[in-house]
Design brief:
By secondary structure, the chain is an alpha/beta fold. It has helices at residues 10-17, 48-66, 85-97, 136-147, 165-171, 182-191, 197-210, and strands at residues 21-28, 32-39, 78-81, 101-104, 115-116, 124-132, 151-160, 175-181. The chain has a single domain (7-210), classed as Rossmann fold, CATH 3.40.50.2020. The strands form 2 sheets. It has a 6-stranded mixed β-sheet with strand order 5-4-3-6-7-8, with helices on both faces. A two-stranded antiparallel ribbon has the order 1-2.
C-alpha cells in the first residue's frame, strides 16, 4: 500500500495521477516561454474528492494565517474566482466555508467588466485562482473588483509557478497565499520516482532563472 505524501504534497501526487503534469517545451501565456513543465489544474474537476480536499486545505491554511498574533490574512466576506481554472477551486471553497462567491467574466468578452453575484460596496473579497505565473489575471480581477468598490487584500492559489507573481501582487498591495510552489512539486516528483533527474534539473534551472522572490 502506497504511503500518502506528507503535508500538501498529496496535491502533487494527485495531479500526477490525473495526468495533469507534463514535461517538454511549453509557452504558457505571455510569461512562461520554453517552460519545461506544464500543469493543468482543471483536471481536478475529474476527482471531486481531491477538489474538496483542496478547499479544506485552503480553509485550514487561511485559518492558521488569520489566527496569528499578527494575522497574515485579513477577514473577508466574499470569494472571487478567476475564470476559468479558479472558478472550480473558488466554488469548492465557497461551499466548504459557506461564504458567498462572485466572479468576473473573462477578458476579451462582451461582459469582461461584469461582476456576477450579489455584493455591496465596502465588502472585503478574497481572490482565488488555481495557479499563478506572473499574476496578471489576479491583478486584473483585483482592479475590476476595486473599481466596483470592493476591498481586495489577499489572494489564494493552489500552485505558485514562481515566475514573479508574488512580487507583482505585493507591489499592488495584495498578499499571496499558495498551497504549493513549483520547486516543491518538481522535487517531490523526482523523489517519488515519477520523473528522471534531467527533467527535474531542467525545471529547477528554469525556476532559478525566473524566480525573483
Amino acid at each position: 500500500m502506497s504511503k500518502t505524501p506528507a503535508g500538501n504534497l498529496w496535491l502533487a501526487e494527485e495531479l500526477w495521477k490525473l495526468n495533469a503534469i507534463d514535461f517538454g517545451d511549453y509557452t504558457l501565456g505571455r510569461t512562461s516561454v520554453h517552460s519545461p513543465i506544464y500543469i493543468n489544474l482543471r483536471r481536478l474537476i475529474s476527482n471531486p474528492k481531491a477538489l474538496a480536499k483542496c478547499a479544506r486545505i485552503i480553509r485550514e491554511e487561511l485559518e492558521t494565517l488569520m489566527s496569528m498574533r499578527n494575522p497574515h490574512v485579513q477577514p473577508f466576506t466574499l470569494v472571487a474566482g478567476v475564470p476559468f481554472g479558479g472558478l472550480h477551486v473558488a466554488t469548492a471553497f465557497s461551499l466548504a466555508v459557506n461564504t458567498p462567491m462572485i466572479y468576473i467574466h473573462p477578458p476579451a468578452t462582451d461582459k469582461a467588466d461584469v461582476i456576477e453575484g450579489i455584493f455591496v460596496r465596502g465588502q472585503s473579497c478574497l481572490i482565488i485562482d488555481d495557479l499563478i505565473t506572473g499574476g496578471g489575471s489576479i491583478l486584473q480581477t483585483a482592479a475590476t473588483l476595486t473599481e466596483a468598490g470592493l476591498v481586495v487584500r489577499d489572494a489564494v492559489t493552489l500552485i505558485d509557478r514562481q515566475e514573479g507573481g508574488r512580487t507583482n501582487l505585493k507591489a499592488a498591495g495584495i498578499n499571496l497565499v499558495s498551497i504549493l510552489k513549483l520547486d516543491q512539486i518538481a522535487t517531490y516528483l523526482m523523489s517519488a520516482g515519477h520523473i528522471p533527474e534531467d527533467a527535474y534539473r531542467r525545471t529547477m534551472e528554469y525556476i532559478e532563472a525566473r524566480d525573483g522572490e
